[in-house]
Amino acid sequence: MTDKTKLCPLCQGFNLCGARVGNSIEQCWCSKQTFPDKRLLAQVLESDKLAKLNGTTCICESCLVSLQADITAQQTLYKRID
Fold first, then answer.
1. Which of 1, 3, 15, 52 has the highest CB neighbour number within 10 Å of its CB?
2. How far does CA 80 lie from the centroid of its chain?
3. Helix, strand, or coil here: 7?
4. Mean pLDDT by 10 residues, the chain (82 residues)
């Protein structure tokens, strides 16, 4: 059985967390990324998926890229044009 902390809570794929495989967090792909805060995530995720982001399991890089694109699209869609 696979350790659930190695799976992305959004897509259930492997999150490839460096810290989970014995490396330091500085060696993980995520240490070079910017993650959106919960306020921004709430704009693009359904409540059940948002609830899965409880800080105990890392998301994967693919989901991060997708979330960042969704947030950018959401902000562009509602951008004020004075």
1. 15
2. 27
3. strand
4. 82 89 86 89 91 87 94 74 62
Q: Where in the chain are the domains?
A: 7-77
CA dihedral 28, 30, 31, 36 (to 10 degrees): -170
Contact 15, 6 (CB under 8 A): yes
Tokens of 23: 């490396």
Q: pTM, whole model, 2 decimals? A: 0.80
Is the Cβ–Cβ distance between 5 and 57 less than 8 Å? yes
Cβ 13 vs Cβ 65: under 8 Å: no
Output the pLDDT for position 64: 94
